[in-house]
Amino acid sequence: MPRPAPAQYLPLYLVTDTALCAPRAVADVVAAAVAAGVTCVQVRDKHAGGRDLVSLVAAVARAAEGRVPVLVDDRVDVYLAARELGARVDGVHVGQSDLPAGAVRRIVGVDAVVGLSAATPGQVAAAHALPAGTVDYLGIGAVHATATKPDHPAPLGVEGFATLAAGADLPCVAIGGITTADAAALRAAGAAGMAVVSAICAAADPAASTRDLAEAWRAPTGRRSR
């Protein structure tokens, strides 16, 4: 199946956090969020071993029921293993210290989604220097400081995000401490979507939080997203 267009899956992008979801299962939170309007799910668990992470990805894929793309953070091997076991997973998202995006594309093939993190003009430029079709979208952040990824770069703020997005030809999804209060400003700044972790995973009611985020994102602004 050809990979989907970023405009379809970037608007409200959930990145999972097993600890924040607890005591609920990650798959249960994902199921509620997808039903309420999440458009993409990235499975991220830096502490899980390979076998456990494959199981987690498979559980999330079952919960998503093919309604939205399911991506694997960092671990190309886990993506391949989950696919081999029959899970419906759609691609990977890699950071600057992970496998090079060009190598990832060659490994996963033309039908998989490949996302890449970027936090500086140089990293955006390097992504553009790759052959066309290597990367589908950029994840730009951290917009705000966030405890879910302690090693994130210095916060960009919405203005910093806007500067990087303006220099990007690829669709850009904003990440890092994002809440409903950021939606209008990020759309005006050129974001194609917003990626959230704690706003859904730590919410008492993930479905209600998802609906609030989706409504905030859909609210009209003065500038169309990229």
UniProtKB/TrEMBL annotation:
UniProt EC number: 2.5.1.3
Pfam families noted in UniProt: TMP-TENI
Cofactor(s) listed: Mg(2+)
Pathway(s) the chain acts in: Cofactor biosynthesis; thiamine diphosphate biosynthesis; thiamine phosphate from 4-amino-2-methyl-5-diphosphomethylpyrimidine and 4-methyl-5-(2-phosphoethyl)-thiazole: step 1/1
Residues annotated for 2-[(2R,5Z)-2-carboxy-4-methylthiazol-5(2H)-ylidene]ethyl phosphate binding in this entry: T146, A147, T148, G177, V197, S198
Sample GO molecular function, one term: thiamine-phosphate diphosphorylase activity
Protein's UniProt keywords contain Transmembrane: no
Keywords assigned by UniProt, alphabetized: Magnesium, Metal-binding, Thiamine biosynthesis, Transferase
Catalytic activity: 2-(2-carboxy-4-methylthiazol-5-yl)ethyl phosphate + 4-amino-2-methyl-5-(diphosphooxymethyl)pyrimidine + 2 H(+) = thiamine phosphate + CO2 + diphosphate; 2-[(2R,5Z)-2-carboxy-4-methylthiazol-5(2H)-ylidene]ethyl phosphate + 4-amino-2-methyl-5-(diphosphooxymethyl)pyrimidine + 2 H(+) = thiamine phosphate + CO2 + diphosphate; 4-methyl-5-(2-phosphooxyethyl)-thiazole + 4-amino-2-methyl-5-(diphosphooxymethyl)pyrimidine + H(+) = thiamine phosphate + diphosphate
GO biological process terms, semicolon-separated: thiamine biosynthetic process; thiamine diphosphate biosynthetic process
Enzyme class (EC, first level): transferase
Amino acids binding 4-amino-2-methyl-5-(diphosphooxymethyl)pyrimidine: Q42, V43, R44, D45, K46, D73, S117, K149
Cofactor comment text: Binds 1 Mg(2+) ion per subunit.
Residues at which Mg(2+) binds: D74, D98
Coiled-coil segments on the chain, per record: none
Main function: Condenses 4-methyl-5-(beta-hydroxyethyl)thiazole monophosphate (THZ-P) and 2-methyl-4-amino-5-hydroxymethyl pyrimidine pyrophosphate (HMP-PP) to form thiamine monophosphate (TMP).
NCBIfam families in the record: thiE
Alphabetical list of PANTHER family matching this protein: THIAMINE-PHOSPHATE PYROPHOSPHORYLASE, THIAMINE-PHOSPHATE SYNTHASE
Family: Belongs to the thiamine-phosphate synthase family.
Protein name: Thiamine-phosphate synthase
Organism: Arthrobacter agilis
